[in-house]
Specification:
This protein is α/β, with parallel strands linked by helices. It is built from 33 helices and 23 strands. Helix 6 packs parallel to helix 7, helix 11 runs antiparallel to helix 12 and helix 26 crosses helix 27. The longest helix has 24 residues.
């Protein structure tokens, strides 16, 4: 066997060799693996995270003073850093044994080495090969290696490598330098683009227009965008994308643990429930998730109703599944998920045993789903490595949140990109490092020639270098180590006949600098007194100059181009109204006030959401912010009223606070997350103060609460142009109270920051929601009002509740306005004309979704005053929170 060995040749494809049997081209990692096979030294590999855990135990056992304080503060990071130093010392050839006069860091490494039960790593593999070859020196083992062609002088290699090359020579291998062609000076052409899309288009045109002439592609950055442009031109994908920790398969375990540890973040829980891990088996089915769809939908709907776990909506899901004998499998999974999030692990109980038990179901589910699915196999391997780390740390090890996060990240490592799919072609060869190039005078396209900081190894000071030398190490200067890679890259580039460099001035919105090898090539071409930047500017080519009358031509590559004739089209005013054929079938089967508000404020919103059934994903409907807190405080009022019927009297501040604390995990669990303490405290103080005012003011007014969240359903006849339509009008009244004479009062509770909105609606006679609730009572004497929970104020015509002297709401008039607006909207929708009134008001005022809310409110106020003057009404549909603003045209590119 003939080996072509280079310090930077790891990762070289077999096709880059000399195309002869028994000839291979490899770097240090490849040569070590080959020698392990020949010498019967192969062993199962141990994950780096497990080795860090082993080293952490060794540090704890050694208890060396130099590392103790750092290890106490951050054990995982300290162990990882110390292990990297240890491996670097071993790779350099050091035998870590205690001796007198050692520097503190070296002394600590030697002490830990004595206590370590450490699995071997790459450095130990190299050490083991060298030791065995030394033992076999008297009677060499036949390695089957006839010749080693070295790209570098063996004496310049770091650590044990010169000794290994010498031992190979003693084992019968001929060692000689690889034939070096005379250093060339390739023609240089530098194309820089402002963004990756422009650069990808230029590079794809160059590759597609070669006409069969071979070219070598050097891709030092990912080619995802370039591959898309190549596919557009019918060319094969290059398929280069780096491994990353941010792959879906490596996010499953962190997401799972985030909901297994208290406090549970319901947004993360929603993301876990909605996570799809496999493509659908058939085109007409949805992707497969860790949680089956019939369980996922129910739990997400429960979170949308109650953004917490363990509440009535959550328990109703389990009861519904338990009542169906055909849902036994789904019920088992639902119970596992419920147990995970309703009894999460306390942060002060993060032991290996608790974490192992919590992840049992995840392991079973991944194995059940992941038969042959690479992403799930990778996720399962992540979990198994995590469990191996826990086993290594021991049952008595107590983890902190930071250490757990570090372990999960380290156990995952990096995964390949799912879009890195190289495709076969004979039009070009591909490599990812300049040293791997073998263009032999041909053209090279260098994609992504951006600066990359070279790895220079561990830095040792002069005293430490002297101590390591005494332990048998050979430490190479970091600059000399970097020079090995630089020289190898320049050898590959200089062998090209023409070097076409395509790069971007910025990548992922960050400015880039040219690759250091470009600076070397430029320095070779610099005249006296000329700096590198000036030389690169001299070789820079504007890609627009490649476009001419005959098409696109650059560096021997040609592509026909045809420019469409310039056409100026005046931009019409934006009209959000949609026109379609008659749609008499778009009528409600039932009406609620929220539907009525949509019909009055934005008919498109009602058409999309209710008429056509278009809804955002359930995971996007999990409440947060004011909506979540409003749901919580509503439930607190309901529980307090129900408890008060047995106890009598108004609840005290202590009782309100206790009820809040009991319901927060079920209805607003995100307030329990770290960093939300101030928000939770502020909410609790505001809610307690407000509810004390609410109950005491009702009692002072002589009102007794008779029901909370009382459901109603009343028939409503709508006189449409196509004929009368009777639909049930239904909803829930927040609070229903009575005075001593039995006169009812409906109170609607609002947790809102808009302190002026509801008083203004009430005073203008446009409190349509209150009018609908009063209409449902069929009692002309009914009184109505709002209670603003955040402000602790009533909005009512009853002076005992609200001292502001507000006018009595004309319920009949307000209800008539509501019904009239509903009828008019349904007639228009049935005729095929669907407007977006609220959005059109903003558009007509030259505003959009980006308009500050203060300015938008002024626009709506002016429109409301104008409508009132004409006897109409304008309802602000809050386009800034709408899920359909892209469909209506208010958001997006209208061109």
């Amino acid at each position: 066997m003939q080996i072509e060995f280079g310090w930077s040749l790891d990762g070289t494809a077999w096709a880059d060799g000399a195309s002869a049997a028994g000839t291979v081209r490899m770097g240090p990692r490849g040569l070590v693996q080959l020698l392990q096979t020949r010498l019967a030294l192969t062993r199962p590999s141990v994950d780096p995270a497990v080795r860090i855990a082993q080293y952490a135990r060794a540090i704890a056992a050694a208890d060396h003073g130099w590392v103790r304080s750092s290890f106490d503060v951050d054990p995982w990071a300290t162990a990882g850093t110390m292990l990297a130093w240890r491996d670097a010392a071993v790779m350099a050839g050091a035998s870590l044994r205690r001796a007198s006069g050692l520097p503190a860091r070296i002394e600590a490494l030697c002490a830990i080495e004595e206590a370590a039960g450490l699995s071997p790593g790459a450095a130990d593999d190299l050490r083991e090969i060298v030791d065995l070859l030394q033992e076999l020196a008297a009677s060499p083992w036949p390695l089957g290696i006839e010749q080693v062609l070295c790209h570098e002088e063996p004496a310049t290699l770091p650590g044990l490598w010169p000794q290994l090359v010498e031992l190979l020579a003693g084992a019968g291998a001929e060692i000689r330098r690889a034939d070096e062609a005379p250093s060339g000076r390739p023609e240089l052409m530098l194309l820089e683009a402002d963004d990756e899309w422009t650069a990808a288009e230029t590079a794809a045109r160059f590759l597609a227009g070669r006409g069969g002439d071979p070219v070598h592609v050097l891709a030092t950055e990912d080619t995802i965008l370039l591959d898309q442009e190549l596919h557009r031109r019918g060319q094969a994908a290059i398929g280069v994308a780096g491994a990353s920790a941010d792959r879906t398969s490596l996010q499953i375990l962190p997401l799972y643990l985030s909901i297994a540890i208290a406090p549970v973040d319901v947004q993360q829980l929603g993301a876990f429930l909605d996570l799809r891990v496999l493509d659908a088996p058939d085109s007409d089915r949805e992707p497969i998730g860790l949680v089956p769809s019939r369980v996922r939908r129910r739990f997400l709907d429960a979170l949308a109703a109650e953004p917490g776990t363990g509440g009535s909506a959550w328990q109703a899901v389990l009861a519904e599944l338990a009542a169906d004998p055909e849902e036994a499998a789904a019920l088992a999974i639902a119970r596992e998920v419920s147990a995970l999030v309703t009894a999460p692990i306390s942060p002060d109980e993060l032991t290996p045993a608790r974490l192992r038990a919590a992840t049992t179901w995840l392991g079973e589910r991944l194995r059940a789903l992941g038969q042959g699915a690479p992403s799930l196999v990778r996720a399962s391997a992540h979990l198994q490595t995590f469990l191996a780390v826990l086993d290594t740390l021991g049952e008595q090890h107590m983890l902190g949140a930071r250490e757990l996060s570090q372990i999960v990240e380290a156990a995952g490592g990096r995964a390949a990109s799912p879009v890195a799919r190289p495709e076969a072609t004979d039009a070009w060869t591909t490599c990812t490092r300049p040293a791997q190039l073998r263009p032999r005078g041909g053209d090279v396209l260098w994609w992504g020639a951006d600066r990359q900081d070279p790895y220079t190894g561990v830095s040792w000071d002069s005293v430490e270098i002297e101590a390591l030398a005494g332990l048998g190490a050979r430490v190479v200067d970091p600059a000399a180590l970097a020079a090995l890679e630089t020289d190898a890259g320049l050898r590959g580039l200089r062998d090209a006949g023409r070097l076409v460099v395509v790069r971007t001035r910025s990548r992922v919105e960050k400015a880039t600098a040219p690759h250091s090898l470009l600076a070397h090539l430029a320095a070779e071409r610099a005249a006296a007194g000329e700096d590198v930047a000036e030389v690169l500017e001299r070789y820079r080519v504007d890609s627009r100059a490649a476009v001419g009358d005959g098409g696109w031509e650059l560096a021997g590559s040609r592509r026909p181009l045809s420019a469409p004739p310039a056409e100026e089209r005046p931009e019409p005013p934006l009209d959000l109204t949609k026109h379609a054929g008659p749609a008499p079938h778009l009528v409600p089967t039932a009406l609620s006030y929220s539907q009525a508000e949509n019909l009055l404020g934005c008919r498109q919103k009602w058409t999309y959401r209710t008429g056509l059934g278009i809804r955002p994903a359930s995971v996007a409907s999990v409440p947060s912010g004011n909506q979540m807190i409003g749901t919580l405080v509503h439930a607190v009022v309901e529980e307090l009223v129900n408890a008060g019927r047995e106890r009598g009297g108004s609840p005290s501040a202590a009782e309100i606070s206790t009820m809040l604390d009991r319901l927060v995990p079920q209805l607003a669990s995100e307030l329990l997350l770290p960093g939300r303490e101030v928000e939770l405290t502020s909410m609790r103080e505001t809610a307690v103060r407000s509810l004390v005012e609410f109950f005491s003011r009702l009692a002072d007014a002589g009102l007794v609460i008779t029901s909370v969240e009382s459901r109603f359903e009343e028939p409503l006849t709508l006189h449409l142009q196509r004929g009368d339509l009777e639909v049930p009008f239904l909803g829930y009244r927040d609070v229903l109270a009575e005075d001593a004479a039995g006169r009812p009062t409906v109170i609607d509770l609002k947790w809102t920051s808009a302190a002026k909105k509801y008083p203004e609606l009430f005073d203008a006679g446009e409190a349509l929601q209150l009018a609908s609730y009063a209409w449902s009572l069929h009692d002309d004497s009914a009184d109505v009002g709002y209670f603003l929970l955040k402000q602790g104020e009533f909005v009512s015509a009853n002076p005992a509740l609200d001292p502001h002297g507000r006018p009595t709401l004309d319920i009949a008039e307000a209800w008539s306005t509501t019904v009239g607006g509903i009828t008019e909207a349904l007639d228009a929708i049935g005729a095929g004309t669907v407007t977006a009134e609220s959005g059109q008001i903003l558009v007509d005022a030259g505003q959009g979704l980006g308009t500050p809310r203060v300015d938008a409110k002024k626009t709506y106020a002016a429109a409301q005053e104008e409508a009132r003057a004409d006897g109409g009404i304008v309802v602000d549909a809050r386009c800034d929170f709408c899920d359909f603003s892209l469909l209506c045209g208010l958001r997006g590119d209208a061109s």
